[in-house]
Amino acid sequence: MPARILDGQALAARIQQQEIKPQVADFTAAHGRPPGLAIVLVGNDPASEVYVGHKLKAGQAIGFRVDLERLPATSSLSEVLALVERLNQSDVHDGILVQSPLPKAMGAGAASRVFDTVAIEKDVDGFAPASVGLMVQGRPAFVACTPAGVMELLAREHVTLAGRRAVVIGRSDIVGKPVAMLLLQRDATVTVCHSKTPNLAEVCREADILVAAVGRPGLVTKDFVKPGATVIDVGINTITDAAAASRLYPDGHKRLLKFQERGSMLVGDVHPEVAEVAGALTPVPGGIGPLTITMLMLNTLKAARARAGR
Ligand code: NAD
């Protein structure tokens, strides 16, 4: 039986419209202003432009104030830090998000310096070291939006975690590590794999819940997946190479035809053939991506309530 497709797009729309939107309206009525989010975009990386566009549109559609603060790619790190400091003091902004990646010219430690500077009560991205520390200890904190989106989907789809084997591929600070920690807190037995893990497929085959957060199109093939497992595909990869597209989809498949028309396509880390063995699977696009934005909105609402309550 083919895997059940876990429709993140539909779930995100439902949470945004039926749950967050009315709460935003209540907040606005009670406080005379909407919850506010500032998005800092440095430079004009095309993928970042797309992500920021989605966040702006989604937030504004459900009543948030969302301001885009742009800085040129030639900005210095001190200019970015000065902008973040100004937003830390702003009365109308409850959350601050600095879109990654920062321009390479800013240097290797730039992102950490920026995350260190965001006020913890406005850290809706959950990347500040204090937020991460609290999350690891299971104390109330802003949880990074993509890991929070993965957990929300698993909870809403009633996927049992306690006592089950979870394998996470990827150990980044923004996805792999926090997802692993959150699964552990929900009593799963968790293994984290990465680029140096030997026998990757064999380790993954032990998983009842397999999370792929790698950035390699179609890396997870059928032989990585235990029959019936729940597979969460966090990867978002743009492919423009016809050979790569043909490795994922057979001749005549509608996604391949669309690729041939457009010259590019968005795919995950999980090969589509996995649908033949998995019990449930998130699609790309339309899986974890929309939930990431939803979690950003929830974090901003939470930040607004906490600030208003002080
Ligand atoms: P990253 O490059 O920081 O980390 C990738 C991880 O994968 C590393 O820990 C690395 O060790 C591991 N890895 C690389 N090659 C491997 C291999 N061959 N086998 C096993 N492990 C390997 O990436 P990231 O920021 O964690 O993002 C991962 C993917 O998730 C990307 O495709 C990114 O675009 C996507 N992403 C999606 C969302 C969303 O909203 N859905 C949000 C963030 C990131």
Give the topology.
Elements: E1 4-5, H1 8-31, E2 36-42, H2 46-61, E3 65-71, H3 77-89, E4 95-98, H4 110-117, H5 129-136, H6 145-156, E5 165-169, H7 176-185, E6 189-193, H8 200-204, E7 209-212, E8 230-233, E9 237-239, H9 242-248, H10 254-262, E10 265-267, E11 280-281, H11 288-308
Parallel strand pairs: 1-11, 2-3, 2-4, 5-6, 5-7, 7-8, 8-11
Antiparallel strand pairs: 9-10
Helix pairs in contact: 1-11, 2-11, 3-4, 6-7, 6-11
This protein binds nicotinamide-adenine-dinucleotide.
Residues 146, 169-172, 174-176, 193-195, 197, 200, 213-216, 219, 234-237, 288-289, 292 line the site of nicotinamide-adenine-dinucleotide.
Oligomer: single chain
The gyration radius over C-alpha positions equals: 20 Å
Q: Tell me the strand percentage band.
A: 5-15%
Inertia-based shape:
globular
The CATH homologous superfamily of the largest domain is termed NAD(P)-binding Rossmann-like Domain
Helix content: 40-55%
CATH topology of the largest domain: Rossmann fold
Order of helices and strands: EHEHEHEHHHEHEHEEEHHEEH
- When the domains are counted, the total is 2
The biggest sheet, with number of strands, parallel, antiparallel or mixed sense and barrel status, is: 6 strands, parallel
Note poorly predicted spans.
none
Total beta strands? 11
| First-to-last CA distance | 53 Å
The total of helices stands at 11
Q: Judging by the overall fold, what is the CATH architecture of the largest domain?
A: 3-Layer(aba) Sandwich
Sheet with the most strands: spatial strand order: 1-11-8-7-5-6
